[in-house]
Amino acid sequence: MSETDFPVPRISVVTAFPDVVRGYLSSSVLGRGMGHGLIDVSVVDLRDFATGSYRQIDDYCYGGGGMVLMAAPLEAAVESVAAKEGRYVIYPSPQGRPLCQELVEDLLGIAARKRLVFVCGHYEGVDERFVLRHVDMEISIGDFVITGGELPSLAMIDAIARLVPGVVGSFDSVKEDSFFSGMLDNPHYTRPEDWSGDKVPDTLLGGDHAAISRYRRREASERTVSRRPELLAKAGIMPYLECGVYVLELHHPVLDRNRRESTTSVTGMDLHDIARACRTYGVRKFIVVTPLASQRELIGEVASHWTTGYGAEFNPDRADAMKGIKTASSLSRALDWINEKERRPPFVIAITARERGGSLSWLTLKEMMLLAARPVVLVFGTGSGLREETLASADAVMSPISGGQGYNHLSVRSAVSITLDRFFGFR
Questions:
Q1: What does the DSSP 8-state code read for residue 248?
Q2: Is the pTM of the predicted complex or chain greater than 0.85?
Q3: Could you read off the pLDDT of 215-273 as tens digits, one per residue?
Q4: Residue 1 pLDDT > 70, yes or no?
Q5: 177 is catalytic
Q6: Could you tell me if residue 4 is inside a domain?
Q7: Residue 268 shares a structural domain with residue 386
Q8: Which of 190, 282, 309, 406, CA to CA, is 20 to 30 A from 30?
Q9: Are 231 and 247 in a shared domain?
Q10: 163 and 26: one domain?
């Protein structure tokens, strides 16, 4: 979407201290965005809606305590901005929903449809009756208390404005910010190269853009894992991996219902659904492992139908997914191929539905992927699952996927989709 197509966010701030808000809005990035008509922000002086000669907007709290902003002037102020159906009122409050990047993006979407109205509290807060009648959402910027709602409101407006194309000089720089992808940002340096004995990393001085990109991804990964590992639960880590990701569907050797070694047949549904899931999440190759030449030929025919001729023309998206399918006659051959292609030994994670000692949670494995600097291979079994020998030979085994209901019998294509989303889904 171009700058001209992007809906202009509409925002108003109701405050008893309008000069504080206007001063910040007139400066730097926000002021430039408003000047170019990319964002519409107005300031409403709460005292303009006070009654009496003293323009009173607050009074003592019933039951004892400090001063509280009165409901009547607050109501009159927000109603002057827009009708109820055309506004969305936000009250910055330590009791509110914690602010995060996803919520900022939601607020941007709301501001394109309705006018966002930030109501700045002061003293002990605002009359609860106003909150119940007019406030759509309370938002907290942290577990602490400050004097008024102006700073939290401005922080949210600033965060919203950065997401509007054209407000920040380069929108690519916004995408690289901490939290945009769920990861922390990499460190930054400027001149001089040597500051009191602390030097800029050599990689950043060499002019090798590929090496610089790898360095920055690596630093962002290590910083996120060490400082804010909880962020990884919703972070999109695929761009930060140094090597590719591969999904292996193993048809031999696997277990049958009697827990004996077996060979299973390839199904068209698995091919289509897993290939599409792999393409969606950026997996480099979906490798189907079967010792049966006839099965490998069948896979080639199915894939060829969608990647060439009428199939490719009829459904280009399916063709794009099916191009990612590869076959191998054994697990060892598949891993050798990946090793040769990536020039690094793969980090193999076995996926099982059985409880097993030593298995690791997907969150722990997500950290390990980021720091391993090796290609990642996710091995899924068919039939009744992977043999113990296969599990034992893997670098790690993921704890079983659980829906919390005691029933655990997912199809392999469902398990692949869930696993890929946990590891590589963006939020």
A1: E
A2: yes
A3: 999 999 999 999 999 999 999 999 999 999 999 999 999 999 999 999 999 999 999 99
A4: no
A5: yes
A6: no
A7: yes
A8: 190
A9: no
A10: yes
Whether residue 230 lies inside any domain: the answer is: yes
Q: Which of 177, 222, 242, 395 is catalytic?
A: 177
pLDDT higher than threshold 70 for residue 173:
no
Other CB atoms closer than 10 Å to residue 310's CB: what's the count? Answer: 9
CATH code of the domain in which 399 resides: 3.40.1280.10
Is residue 279 in a domain?
yes
Active-site option among 10, 87, 115, 162 = 162
Read off the pLDDT of each residue in 111-139 and give the average, rounded to a whole number: 97
- Is 162 noted as a catalytic residue in this protein? yes
Q: Give catalytic status of residue 260 as yes or no.
A: no
Comparing 169 with 418, the larger pLDDT belongs to: 418
Strands 261-262 and 254-255: antiparallel
The upper half-sphere exposure of residue 221, i.e. CA atoms within 13 Å in the direction of its Cβ, equals 21
Structural contact between residues 252 and 264, judged by C-beta atoms closer than 8 angstroms = yes
Task: Write the DSSP string, 203-240.
Answer: GGGS--HHHHHHHHHHHHHHHHHHH-GGGGGG---GGG
Exactly one of 3, 102, 124, 256 is catalytic; name it.
124
Catalytic residue among 94, 165, 291, 400: 94
Domain residue limits at 312: 242-424
Residues 6 or more apart whose CB falls under 8 angstroms from that of 251 comprise: 263, 264, 265, 266, 288, 289, 290, 292, 295, 382, 383
Q: DSSP of 312-324, one letter per residue?
A: HHH-HHHHHHHTT
Task: Express each pLDDT in 354-397 by its tens digit.
Answer: 999 999 999 999 999 999 999 999 999 999 999 999 999 999 99
**φ, ψ of residue 102 in degrees (nearest 5):** -60, -40
- Does residue 281 share a domain with residue 133? no
Residue 3 banded pLDDT, cuts 50, 70, 90: low
Between the CA of residue 206 and those of 40, 148, 203, 219, 425, what are the distances in Å? Answer: 43, 48, 6, 17, 34
